[in-house]
Amino acid sequence: MYDLLIKNAMIVNGRNEVPYQADIAVNGDTIVKIGHISEAARRTIDAGNRLVTPGFIDIHCHSDAVIFQPGKNAKRLQQGFTTEVIGNCGVSVAPVSGQYKADWETYSKPLLSNMEVPYNWHSYEEYLQEMEKEELCLNLAGLVGHGAVRAAVVGFADKKLTGKELEQAKQLLDESLEAGAFGMSTGLIYPPGVYADEDEICMLAEIVKRHNGIYTTHIRSESYGLVEAVKEALRIAEKTGVSLELSHHKAAGRPNHGKTKITLELMREAQEKGLDVTCDVYPYDAASTNFNSILPPWALEGGIEKLMQRLQDQETRAKLIEAMKDENPDWESFYQLTGWDKLYISECSVEKYMDKTVAQIAEEEHADPFEKALDILLESRNNAMMIVFFMSPEDVARVIASPCSMICTDGFPSVKKSHPRYYGSCVRTLEKYVKQEYLLSLPQAIYKMCGMPAGKLGLRDRGAIGEGMKADLLVIDFPRLHDNATYENDKAVCDGIDYVIVNGQLAVDQGNLTSVYAGRVLRKTGE
């Protein structure tokens, strides 16, 4: 007798192959048989020719802190996610050092949705051990953040790492990868990653390559310097041979729309040279990030306390405003890319600023928007997140259609309001770009959400349906599939995902969450 039997399934196997009808038998956490199955099972689901796919793998999200919260992020299961990759954009919660731990905790808290993290660890191994004590909804694969590594060594100092400091950074990275991190991420527009040069990244990427990990990067520019930033990432891949993932690929700001034609061609050419180069993308024309990203990098040198001091000093405020008004900045200026009417405060510790654009806030208070933006940061003590509307739908569709891309969320699990991408990315892709616009075929889309990210990570037993594979499975009523998550209601659950199986256990039954927490901490084996 099998533990679970799915009858009459229309299988989309995650390998970009033609769908076919069969039954699927599961014992324990593993698919043991596919075909016409007449034996009995402890639980049988009649798919009735509904789609059965692998569970979605979110190659890029920011669920690092929700793991430690009551209830976790169970709604993600109802959106079809069974595995997620955390530690992105240079931000991971390990490793941390005693000297700079408080600085890193204060800086990263908004990026961790203001959720409490115990930080009862220093090394990445200790962190993984703590995660393994938690009941998890989803499988978790972690990256080690370059920002966390750098902050553990020199804090938020704007400097080139010395020989001893560089060796310490290398050791922390090596130990983290040895513990089971799947690679290293960088956030090269954010402190402290922005202070690192290409040589530093190359030396660390060589260690990632030795561990057969991946290098994922929020590149130095997604706007005016987009093409050069992609070229830098490709140079690092070529010099080191590391597997490269360009995070949430986009062209930000109206003057830069269309540049994805160039960058995708650069990726294609790199692949032809034999480089392992891919990117990820979410199906929305708005981004979301820390509100302090409106500032030039020097504003955060030394950490958040130094920033607070600068925001209270009138002379420094004037310099910050001058930098924001500079029409030819040498940094990623969000104001220049959008204007204050497209910068929407989605989350803030000062609630009166939430759910409004900076322009609206300034108008209501009869204030200068530049001054008001600095006030928001000061009054909230850097505790604010924003949604930024600055991409073109044509660029988004172009990246989604590319053979180089896979689907991600880049989402934050906010307890208040966040970007709908955290819940809706995969379902929105299937509804908009498969059902409505025919940009992708169904097998192509499922491959971009399942088999392709699994292959990138080196997860040999997930991301596809086959005998011997782990039983992370979805039963989808495709005609009924509809994305309900919006900017107004970012946590709304989709229609049409009827069953979700994680490691062989039923986590969503007829659209409803069960009490099952079957997720696991996944560790990179180095093979």
Task: Give your account of this protein's structure.
The chain is built from 17 helices and 23 strands. The model has no long low-confidence stretch (mean pLDDT 96). The chain is globular, with a radius of gyration of 22 Å. Helix 4 (146-154) packs across helix 5, helix 5 (163-179) packs parallel to helix 6 (198-210) and helix 6 packs across helix 7 (226-240). Strand 21 (505-509) and strand 22 (512-513) form a beta hairpin. The strands form four sheets. Strands 1, 2, 3, 4, 5, 19, 20, 21 and 22 form a nine-stranded mixed sheet that branches. It has a six-stranded parallel sheet with strand order 9-10-11-12-13-18, sandwiched between helices. The protein has a four-stranded parallel sheet with strand order 6-7-8-23. The longest helix is centred in the N-terminal third of the chain and has 17 residues, at 163-179. It has helices spanning 75-78, 101-108, 124-131, 146-154, 163-179, 198-210, 226-240, 260-272, 304-312, 314-325, 334-338, 358-364, 369-379, 393-401, 421-436, 442-449, 451-457, and strands at residues 2-11, 20-27, 30-35, 41-46, 51-54, 56-58, 81-86, 139-142, 144-145, 183-187, 214-218, 243-246, 277-281, 286-290, 343-348, 356-357, 384-389, 405-407, 473-476, 497-502, 505-509, 512-513, 521-522.
